[in-house]
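Homework help board

Subject: predicted structure for assignment chain

Our instructor gave us this sequence and asked us to write out the predicted structure in token form, then describe one feature. I got the tokens but I'm not sure how to describe them. Can anyone check?
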Amino acid sequence: MAEVLSQSQIDALLNAARSGELDVDKPAEKSAEQKYRKYDFYSPRKFTKDRLKMLNSIFESYARVINSRINALLHATCEIEVDSVEEQRYYEFSNALTESDVVALAKIDLEKLQGDDPILVHLDTPVVLSMLDRLMGGEGDPDPTLVNDYNMTDLELDMYEDLIKDLVPIMGSSWENYITIRFEYTRTEVNPTLVQLIGYDETVVIVGLNIKFPNCTGRISLCLPGEMLTNVFSEISKNTTRRTTGEDKSEEIFDTLRESELEIVAELARTRILLSDLYHLNVGDVVDIKRPKDSPVFLNIGGRRWFDGRMGTSNKQVAVKIGETYIKM
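My token output:
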């Protein structure tokens, strides 16, 4: 309880304020308890701000990829963006679920990094139904009579699983700048409140993505186990240099390109004639191309001039010997 001032103390303060000895405009100094935030030893933070920023960058890339994928799959325009990346306890994710919700479970292909807890993916039911309606040729308009505890039918669950199976593996490409891992869909849990998928006090990172269609909005929530992330971050720390996607895939890309076939067109020259002259051309006629006979031949690839060469023969067949590169490699 705050101390009650006597009348003499109040008079003394008023006199000090009038005389200027007490600066009433100066803000009172905050106590040590107000200056510093208390540290919660019961739930210490596992991940630094830099790690959470890394996850934010990873899932921004993921949001862009699935945005394009959903647009192509549903033939609709949608916007997906990262709303939040927060370290929490699992019960904060679990408490937001209801008996009618559907949660997809996934894992990474590196078992030594996965741990015991699965990755959880949850989509708001109205958004799921809107997407399924579009898959079946509808406009995806939300149903105003939809009840909060709506349970999906078996057909809707099958279509939902096919949709999740398409979106989960794409997540691996967003991590390629740091580590090569693949995400795999495992199963779907109906009424997740009956199953303890992760310990309630376990540390997780919850990534929230906002998804917006012209006529429907919702949220995609991803729950990443803390143990898995700790193992993945430790593996990333072993790499002293950050990898780039081009370096990782360059050899594979060139292996594919080496077997590609390209058409090379040797062009002697170009000239113009009248249509009437073309009509009267006969075998044995000579067309003046107005170039010396020893002029170089142009070698075109893909409609562009790449090399200059000379006409000749090789093994009694007409050939062109490359003499100069026109386009610098």
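Reply (TA_rk): Your tokens look well-formed. For the description, you could write something like this. Strands lie at 79-89, 102-108, 119-123, 183-190, 203-213, 216-225, 264-267, 297-301, 304-314, 317-325. That's the kind of observation they're looking for.
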